[in-house]
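Methods — Computational structure assignment.
A single polypeptide chain was analysed. Its primary sequence is given first, followed by the predicted tertiary structure written as structure tokens.
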Amino acid sequence: MEIYKQIVVSFILLMLVFGNINKAVSQPNYPRDAEQANLIYSDIENFVEAYDQLKHGVDTIAVLNEFYFDKASTGLNEYITRHQLTPILIRSAIRENPAKYEQVSNFVNSIDDLKPKFIDKLKKFGNILPNAMYAPTYLLVGANRGIAQASKYGQLVTITRVIDDEEKLMKLIIHELSHFQQAMSIGGEKYVALYSEPNNMLELCLREGGAEFITSLVLKEITQEKALIYLNKNESELKLKFIKDLKVQDKGFWLWESINQKEYPILLGYAMGYKICKSLYNKAPNKNEAIKKVLRMDDANQFLNLSGYFVDND
């Protein structure tokens, strides 16, 4: 349950920071041109410097403070706040999985190869969403807490879990950038309000599924591919279960409470939401309007009915 608790805390903080978007200005001032999107990796460069110092038997906590935490970017500071990240937690994570942290140096050395691929993917994103806003993407080192999330400052992506999987990294970036467009589409306060509303299972699955659907349009895959494969193999049964669980708002099988179990793929609600969004999109005569509906999700029940997903014979 520890990871689930961390996610809940992160959402509470998400409400605080994203909710301030509309209070401060109507919208953040980020580029509309994918070519101008920023990939910010100063934090992982700082971590490599800190990690090199750790090899000399110095005080780990002091080194991480001096070379990593004290030099934190805006994105890292936001991540630190959301996940209560401390040098002690990073030290423990390094000890538990040193091989992953050892690879950060190689990742930084190959960053020039990543940059054009990053811009290329964002250009594809712009082909799907011509009016997209490109908040910065921050590449960070965490302590296995919260692999990626959107924020008003941009996408916050920790690299250790995907350090040897560039495709997964790109999917995470596009998924979180899609969430950012959702927030811009409906407004920050409305975006975060959902997480504190009661009986919000359908809305949460559709929001995550919406981000997955946009990701699929850009990259032809979603972040939760294992969940989608499992859903496709067991679609009839899982449709019935989803409707049953929706009536009593039992999110345990579908959303973040599922992360610690190993009996079936985690986050099946992401895949279910994706399937619903895809069904609506496929039926829509105007695909651009369908994408706008996926981003705004004004009325979840109406959206579900329009999709026809639960009445069609797939």
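Note: The chain has 17 helices and four strands.
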